[in-house]
Amino acid sequence: MKPAVPAFLLSALFSISTPHAGASPDVYRSSPAELCATELGHYSEATLRLQRLCDAGAKQSDLTLSGRAAAQANAGTVRIRRGDLEGAARLLSEAHAMRGASADIAISLSAVLIRLERYDEAVLALADLDQVSEELRHKALYNRATAELQRNNVEAAYVDLRKTVQLAPDFVPAQDMLKQFKVTPHTLTADAQDGTRNGQP
Fold this sequence. Notes:
Blueprint: H1 25-29, H2 32-42, H3 48-58, H4 65-81, H5 85-97, H6 105-115, H7 119-125, H8 137-150, H9 154-167, H10 172-178, E1 181-183, E2 188-190, H11 192-198
Antiparallel strand pairs: 1-2
Helix pairs in contact: 2-3, 2-4, 3-4, 4-5, 5-6, 6-7, 6-8, 7-8, 8-9, 9-10
């Protein structure tokens, strides 16, 4: 059995933005998209009822562009929790490509792609990190390093891990993975097998 590859999903859910247009805010607080985001934020388990609620939220017609992408990403998050990684990858990929989407969606998308062993796609999803929130950029770099290491692109993985610890010196997973690298004047190698064992899901 292959060891689990470390990758970070966003623990925070994507907030929903809806145009109030003079209507009572209570209308939007009880909308499927809002309820989905609220329940995902409060409960770690994802039921089929919640999946249906989030799917309905993703189809709401009153969402802003960013809200629609967020709702789609949350529908993907439900599937991650339910173990449907293929479904999660599809929805997160669609959300990531939407106009107005938060670049932070790439972090969860890349984590799912890594778990599916689709490493090339994970690296591509994280190709442009400039738009990722500064407070989350170290996690994006860590995920990209993980994918690069699985592609045997050791130097790229090492560079991303060094950047990760520069941004977040106390980020233990990156520190642990860096310990797997052996740097000499002429070569750079990494024990990817040990790195995957010591990482966190």
